[in-house]
Automatic annotation (TrEMBL):
<feature type="domain" description="NADP-dependent oxidoreductase">
    <location>
        <begin position="19"/>
        <end position="319"/>
    </location>
</feature>
<keyword id="KW-0560">Oxidoreductase</keyword>
<dbReference type="GO" id="GO:0005737">
    <property type="term" value="C:cytoplasm"/>
</dbReference>
<dbReference type="InterPro" id="IPR050791">
    <property type="entry name" value="Aldo-Keto_reductase"/>
</dbReference>
<dbReference type="InterPro" id="IPR036812">
    <property type="entry name" value="NAD(P)_OxRdtase_dom_sf"/>
</dbReference>
<dbReference type="GO" id="GO:0016491">
    <property type="term" value="F:oxidoreductase activity"/>
</dbReference>
<dbReference type="InterPro" id="IPR023210">
    <property type="entry name" value="NADP_OxRdtase_dom"/>
</dbReference>
<dbReference type="Pfam" id="PF00248">
    <property type="entry name" value="Aldo_ket_red"/>
</dbReference>
<protein>
    <submittedName>
        <fullName>Aldo/keto reductase</fullName>
    </submittedName>
</protein>
Length: 338
């Protein structure tokens, strides 16, 4: 397999691998933790050319940044062979207690220093506000983020789950390189209002959960297939509950039928669908599928070699109509900026 590189953003451009690795599940939310397996997965990703690593201070909390930092330091590629992305803004205590969203300028500066220390690096390539703080003007938050760029602690700025007007206001303060949001066959609302703004302003899109939190891989047939302690079993993820799960799995069956015909896995097909949209209207799309196992990483990386004909893209979108997906992305959508 050959992973190509692409560029996120125009006014403040960052060259990255055409898909990245989401590291969250290695430390939080998706069941058991196995640091040795996680380290092998990160090292294998870098060996394959998957060089965009995505983490956040709240994952663990705090331990995922430490894990990623150790993996980079012990890799053959070293720090210069990685594009390192992390996030601030979802404030947590060490015991996991959620305190809420914090975009205050003084917190931005302190959070960055703490992330740099945990990661063991001098500079972060792409620093995101994880969620928009509705009580702090975005101009103030991004103003503090721009100070980090001026200080040489951060190279590029990003926003996660930001709405179109927030993106415009933020970009007026400092060029935004990328917006991260959920985007998959199961989550396409970004196409409506956010995508046109990204195209207009020259901002890249970094989709998280491009495999529908694992549903689109076809490996989940019932809640009992999820490991103990997996947050997807909770009401916070409505698409995995009861009748909603049954309806969504019926859509996955349609994806599997097309994948079988094409000789790939459902997950590879779903990921190739996301990647097929890169370049549309000038928007670069770089998904960051998450996994903590080498086997699944290699499957995801192989999707980069799948080119979908326009008729297959259209067939997939007919097989999984937007309105057929049952359940919101989260049980509480109040922190998602619209």
């Amino acid at each position: 397999m050959s992973i190509q590189h692409t560029t996120l953003g125009t006014a403040s451009s960052l060259t990255v691998s055409q898909l990245g690795l989401g590291c969250m599940g290695m430390s939080d939310f998706y069941g058991d933790r196995d640091e040795a397996s996680a380290m092998r997965t990160i090292h294998r990703a870098l060996d394959l050319g998957v060089t965009l690593l995505d983490t956040a201070d709240m994952y663990g909390p705090f331990t995922n940044e430490q894990l990623v930092g150790r993996a980079i330091a012990s890799s053959r590629q070293g720090r210069d062979g990685v594009q390192l992305a992390t996030k601030f803004g979802n404030e947590r205590l060490p015991d996991g207690t959620m305190l809420g969203v914090n975009g205050k300028p003084e917190y931005v500066l302190a959070a960055c220093d703490a992330s740099l220390q945990r990661l063991g690096v001098d500079v972060i390539d792409l620093y995101y506000q994880h969620r928009v703080d509705f009580d702090v003007p975005i101009e103030d938050t991004v103003g503090a983020m721009s100070e980090l760029v001026a200080a040489g602690k951060v190279r590029h700025l990003g926003l996660s789950e930001a709405g179109p007007e927030t993106i415009r206001r933020a970009n007026a303060v400092h060029p935004i390189t990328a917006v991260q949001t959920e985007y998959s066959l199961f989550s396409r609302d970004v196409e409506d209002a956010v995508w046109p703004v990204l195209a207009e302003l020259g901002i890249g899109l970094v989709p998280y959960s491009p495999l529908g939190r694992g549903l689109l891989t076809g490996s989940i047939a019932a809640p009992t297939d999820l490991p103990d302690g997996d947050a997807r079993s909770s009401a916070y993820f409505p698409r995995f509950q009861g009748d909603a799960l049954e309806a969504n799995l019926a859509l996955v069956t349609r994806v599997r039928e097309i994948a079988d015909r094409l000789g790939c896995t459902p997950g590879q097909l779903a990921l190739a669908w996301v990647m097929s949209h890169s370049g549309r209207d000038g928007v670069t799309v770089v998904p960051i599928p998450g996994t903590k196992r080498v086997e699944y990483l290699e499957q995801n990386a192989a999707a980069a070699g799948i080119t979908l004909a326009p008729e297959v893209v259209a067939e997939l979108e007919r097989a999984v109509p937007r309105e057929a997906v049952v359940g919101d992305r989260y049980g509480d959508m109040s922190t998602i900026d619209r």
